[in-house]
């Protein structure tokens, strides 16, 4: 709950967010490719870390406004006092385990720093110069990238997502906002009253077939396409059709009627399998029919259709969206929805088994689990974006 309160308070700070000057920030550089049907251009960019992970302290002072998962009420006990007295400071990226080199970005889950350690990170892709987020309109286009997650164990989530945010981080809209995109004013989300403006293009884990597409929903589940949950338990994982012990390529296509994904490994194209459960369509990908049938077979509410369906989804996919890359634990649901049994203690109920990880091994409070996570790292590289069919030649 305290973590949720922290995020809520950041939303209040976003309108007039102050910037500290105790830590100089140098955005790590990273490149990506803008593709056409015949060629590509290399685009120089930068990354900035989410404000959620930054140091928030008293203006012109070293005292923290947020410490031990609690706001320090001596400085921050209302929206006005937090805005006037607290600043979001710059980031030292090696201290977050974040390293870039050319077109690659790596994120360590845990990094020793001083007499403590940092855990988790989420970064946003920016335009060169670092004043605006790089934006992408997904509909009619495809995204490809390489990923190496050989050290990511059960319980951790490495994800590439898209969020609808103002390109300048709300700098122009909110008077007094000093932070903007440069200091990752990520709370300036543009959300819809119907369907949340978020697309989870890819979530990864080591041991389960947790290859999840997610349609934009304002509920905690969304419409996912997880081969393991759909009965194909040997597709994705160590030694699977997609062998997660080695680097591979992910390609996601955002067509008007369907979102599809396939993989490339060792020079071979590997299509996501069709569901192996009865009553599902014998084709892969997220579509209106698939999401409708899934709600029936897994006894889930059809929130996607109720909130506007494919038409509303495509409206969101036409918007400029910001790319986020992350590695994160989950003290709320333990990432069980990703690679384990969720909800737990529900027997063999259809759709409950989402991956092979024993649910106890996802517990972030377990010291043995924490030790197993300490060396986890995810590496992204060779990000490409363009019209459908333009990012790969296989």
UniProtKB/TrEMBL annotation:
The keyword Plastid does not apply. InterPro entries: ConA-like_dom_sf, Glyco_hydro_7, Glyco_hydro_7_sf. Keywords: Carbohydrate metabolism, Cellulose degradation, Glycosidase, Hydrolase, Polysaccharide degradation, Signal. Its EC number is 3.2.1.-. The keyword Isomerase does not apply. One of its GO terms (molecular function) is cellulose 1,4-beta-cellobiosidase activity. GO terms for biological process: cellulose catabolic process. It comes from the Eukaryota. Pfam families: Glyco_hydro_7 (PF00840). It catalyses: Hydrolysis of (1->4)-beta-D-glucosidic linkages in cellulose and cellotetraose, releasing cellobiose from the non-reducing ends of the chains. Gene3D superfamilies: Glycoside hydrolase, family 7, domain. Residues 1-16 form the signal peptide. Belongs to the glycosyl hydrolase 7 (cellulase C) family. This is Glucanase. It comes from Colletotrichum noveboracense.
């Amino acid at each position: 709950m305290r973590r949720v309160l922290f995020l809520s308070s950041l939303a209040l700070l976003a309108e007039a967010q102050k910037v500290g000057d105790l830590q100089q920030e140098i955005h790590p550089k990273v490149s990506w490719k803008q593709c056409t049907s015949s060629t590509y251009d290399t685009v120089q960019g930068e990354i900035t870390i989410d404000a959620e992970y930054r140091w928030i302290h008293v203006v012109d002072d070293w005292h923290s406004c947020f410490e031990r998962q609690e706001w320090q009420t001596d400085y921050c006990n209302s929206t006005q006092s937090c805005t006037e007295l607290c600043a979001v400071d710059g980031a030292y990226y090696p201290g977050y385990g974040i390293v870039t080199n050319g077109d690659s970005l790596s994120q360590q889950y845990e990094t020793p720093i001083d007499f403590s350690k940092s855990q988790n990170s989420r970064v946003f892709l920016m335009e060169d110069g670092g004043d605006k987020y790089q934006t992408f309109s997904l509909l009619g286009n495809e995204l490809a990238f390489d990923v190496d997650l050989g050290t990511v164990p059960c319980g951790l989530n490495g994800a590439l997502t898209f969020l609808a945010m103002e390109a300048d981080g709300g700098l122009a809209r909110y008077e007094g906002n000093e932070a903007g995109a440069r200091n990752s004013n990520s709370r300036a989300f543009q959300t819809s009253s119907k369907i949340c403006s978020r697309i989870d293009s890819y979530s990864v884990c080591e041991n389960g077939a947790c290859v999840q597409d997610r349609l934009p929903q304002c509920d905690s589940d969304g419409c996912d396409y997880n081969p393991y949950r759909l009965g194909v338990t040997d597709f994705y994982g160590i030694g699977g059709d997609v062998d997660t012990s080695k680097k591979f390529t992910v390609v996601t296509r955002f067509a008007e009627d369907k979102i599809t994904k396939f993989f490339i490994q060792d020079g071979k194209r590997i299509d996501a399998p069709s569901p192996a459960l009865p009553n599902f369509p014998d084709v892969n990908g997220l579509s209106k029919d698939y999401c409708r049938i899934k709600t029936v077979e897994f006894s889930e509410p059809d929130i996607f259709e109720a909130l506007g369906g494919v038409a509303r989804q495509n409206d969101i996919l036409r918007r400029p969206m910001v790319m986020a890359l992350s590695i994160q634990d989950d003290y709320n649901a333990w990432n069980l929805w990703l690679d384990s049994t969720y909800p737990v203690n529900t027997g063999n109920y259809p759709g409950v088994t989402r991956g092979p990880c024993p649910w106890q091994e996802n517990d972030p409070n377990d010291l043995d689990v924490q030790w197993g996570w300490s060396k986890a790292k995810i590496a992204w590289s060779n990000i490409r974006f363009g019209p459908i069919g333009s990012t790969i030649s296989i």
